[in-house]
Amino acid sequence: MLSRNLGQSGISVSAIGLGCMGLSEFYGEPTQESEAIDLLHRAIDLGVTHFDTAEIYGQGRNEQLLGKAFAGRWDQIVLATKFGPQRDPATGAFVGVDGSPANVRNSCEKSLKRLGTEKIDLYYLHRVDPATQIEDTVGEMAKLVQEGKIGAVGLSEASARTIERAHAVHPITALQTEYSIFSRDIEKDILPTCLKLGISLVAYSPLGRGMLTGRFATPSDRPTSETDFRAQAQPRFQPGNIETNLKLVETIKEIATQKGCTAAQVALAWVLGQGDHVVAIPGTTKLANLESNLGALDCRLTEENRATLNTLADQVLGDRY
Ligand code: ATR
User: Fold this and answer.
1) Which residue of 72, 135, 229, 320 shows the fewest CB atoms closer than 10 Å?
2) Does the CB atom of residue 293 touch ligand 1 within 6 A?
3) Best of 40, 213, 279 to mutate for ligand 1, by most ligand atoms within 8 A of CB?
4) For residue range 49-73, what is the model confidence (pLDDT) as tens digits?
5) Domain coordinates of the chain in residue numbers?
6) What CATH number was assigned to the domain covering residues 12-213+270-298?
7) pTM of the prediction?
8) 204 catalytic residue (yes or no)
9) Which residue's C-alpha comes closest to atom 31 of ligand 1?
10) How far is the CA of 251 from the centre of ligand 1 (A)?
11) Other Cβ atoms within 10 Å of 147 Cβ, number
């Protein structure tokens, strides 16, 4: 398995990791626990070492699941989790972001408990709190590093300026942001800033939340279940946009067919080909998809393929959220 370093931290991870959110929430009903644990174990056996969760995924249940799966195997993996966004415990509604030093500490302690481990390898501020100076948030995260509770500091969905301010307080190891053939807005300021400061980019939704895999053949295949956040909250999946977006996916499918790869493999190969400072964390709940996605490491795109794929993002209809 190809591995890459995360920032300047000395932490090395498999270039393709696993986004674990969908096992508990947001992409339909949660996966059965035994099935989810089998998938996580199989991922380790296949060489995946980078696992990504957050305290908000399933309101703590995703961390608990990973804690159960990784008990006794922590030395084989790099675990990343995140804090900040707040949810109403009763309804699950998002009610704000808390990046205060008190919440940095409080959230970390709770995540450690749910995971059943003594150290979080990579701890992210999941969304920037507009009411707290980033220096204060990262200052407290730096204390957690000194105390050995976390191994490295990350940010998610932060601006170039915020990344620079944070990095001046404590080295930022990774920025996690959506990045895919369809979502390239970070290339203007954010990715160059990461490159300049030696920060890795952890690309989430590298498969465009499933759209780039070609699994939705026609607009009527769009997700509609109440438990699937793409049904309502995702502009690119809405009627009026999805028709155009699925036509763009045809180009990815054509390249995949020419190369004897799957569309998902082309999408992941494109992300990983953007540079050695980029790693991907596609999400899946299915063993067959996990195994197939790892095959992206053998999918070699030509410059011509990349040039064709590079024309797509500007034609996508609908915002990321
Ligand atoms: P996120 O980072 O939010 O998890 P993503 O990685 O872009 O988003 O896409 C995740 C979606 O792609 C999931 O719905 C996943 O569905 P399964 O759980 O059914 O696999 C889907 N997905 C992942 N790999 C896939 C593949 N090889 N073929 C089809 N769908 C796939």
Assistant:
1) 72
2) yes
3) 213
4) 999 999 999 999 999 999 999 999 9
5) 12-213+270-298
6) 3.20.20.100
7) 0.98
8) no
9) 210
10) 19
11) 11
